[in-house]
Amino acid sequence: MLSDPLFIVAAIACLGVLVILVLGIGTFGKGGEGSAKRSNTLMRYRIYAQGVAVALILLYVFVSKMGA
């Protein structure tokens, strides 16, 4: 499983979602109007990244089942 490049890409995408989530929550915690706008933007990026991560996970599962 760890030698499969698609699994590694999906795992990196999941870590990317986590990083964006932590940055968004941290920015939101600072307070202020500018921070709220930036946090909102980061959360929007998180949704896009999460969609990509889910698609990669589904692709990995599909490819794994086809090869088995």
From TrEMBL:
<keyword id="KW-0472">Membrane</keyword>
<keyword id="KW-1133">Transmembrane helix</keyword>
<dbReference type="InterPro" id="IPR007667">
    <property type="entry name" value="Hypoxia_induced_domain"/>
</dbReference>
<feature type="domain" description="HIG1">
    <location>
        <begin position="1"/>
        <end position="68"/>
    </location>
</feature>
<dbReference type="Pfam" id="PF04588">
    <property type="entry name" value="HIG_1_N"/>
</dbReference>
<feature type="transmembrane region" description="Helical">
    <location>
        <begin position="6"/>
        <end position="26"/>
    </location>
</feature>
<protein>
    <submittedName>
        <fullName>Hypoxia induced protein conserved region</fullName>
    </submittedName>
</protein>
<feature type="transmembrane region" description="Helical">
    <location>
        <begin position="47"/>
        <end position="63"/>
    </location>
</feature>
<keyword id="KW-0812">Transmembrane</keyword>
